[in-house]
Amino acid sequence: MIEPGAVAFTVVAVAMVVGGLVEGASLLINKLLEDKTPPHPDKFESYECGELTIGDPQSVNYTVNFYPYLVAFFVAEVASILALAASGSPKPNTLIGIGLLYFSLVVGLVWLRKIGIMRWTR
Description:
Layout: H1 4-33, H2 67-86, H3 92-114
């Protein structure tokens, strides 16, 4: 009688061999069908869409002014997912927890507005 562990090992080994053959065949086909022309020199520029680079691209300073909005959006999304998950069992403790979560979200947004990071007007 064949042991179940040996059958599972055989199935996994065969799947790995078949996967390796498929991957190897796809790499070989890709190598045979690839474009043999050398790349254009502009391909390695910072902007390959035709825009000329002004100055040194390595010395450009990027601002992170949008980062607080990203964090606030992420926290709001997590709060919404938790509220959706908690809506299946509206027990008092669950409702209090979700209420505190939204309260902390509002307090965080008010704090960001107060210190001047999030300005809704120009």
